[in-house]
TrEMBL record:
This is Por secretion system C-terminal sorting domain-containing protein. It comes from Neolewinella agarilytica. The keyword Signal applies. The lineage of its organism: Bacteria, Pseudomonadati, Bacteroidota, Saprospiria, Saprospirales. It comes from the Bacteria. Residues 1-19 form the signal peptide. Keywords: Signal.
């Protein structure tokens, strides 16, 4: 029983380590004692993370880069935010979390059911010359994959069904040595790029 539990914990913790910030780890509070708004996380960041606040019209209100091992802990005067809807974004190298926030003159609310959590594609070039692409986001109609050389010349492109997680492998050992770029686009991730070098 103990071995099964340890294996389960290992699987759970290893899968959590690969995801961006969980929306349930983001706390937004109104501090009425000094009329401020507090943004914080309940867990430390695994990697460098960008913290951004956007207005409902898409204007960037605040941006800061947070170091690995730190927590989000920001306090702003409440009058910096008018009543309305805002979006908090926490993004790192592996994904992005967007949490909608609604503020009024006396209340702040978040709806974690509307939060978006996007995992960026994983692109891995194996020593055998095989390029492996993994896309693990929510279902969408199509995912487009495109490989170009450093001059921007298209080597190949492919559109695949995005109704489930996508994993594709491409044998690249017939290509010349040099720098290449993979571009991946879907409903959740627009023009995600990963560069690699064939030797």
């Amino acid at each position: 029983m103990k071995i099964v539990l340890n294996l389960f914990c290992l699987l759970v913790f290893s899968s959590v380590a690969t995801a961006s910030v969980d929306p349930f780890d983001i706390v937004v509070l109104a501090d009425q004692s000094n009329q401020s708004v507090v943004f914080r996380t309940t867990v430390a960041f695994d990697r460098t993370t960008d913290f951004e606040i956007y207005s409902n019209s898409g204007d960037l209100i605040f941006q800061e880069e947070l170091a690995p091992g730190t927590f989000l802990a920001k306090r702003f005067k409440q009058n910096n935010f008018g009543p309305g809807k805002y979006t908090i974004i926490l993004a790192d190298a592996v994904g992005r979390t967007e949490l909608p926030v609604t503020m009024s003159s006396d209340n702040i609310s978040t709806d974690r059911n509307l939060a978006l959590r996007t995992q960026f594609p994983v692109v891995d070039l194996k020593s055998s010359g095989v390029l492996v692409v993994n896309c693990r986001n929510k279902p969408c109609r199509r995912i487009s994959l495109r490989l170009t050389d450093k001059a921007g010349e298209e080597i190949f492109s492919e559109e695949v069904d995005g109704k489930a997680s996508v994993r594709r492998s491409y044998q690249l050992n017939q290509l010349a040595a040099g720098d290449y770029l993979v571009t991946i686009s879907s409903k959740d991730v627009q023009n995600y790029t990963a560069a690699f070098t064939l030797r």
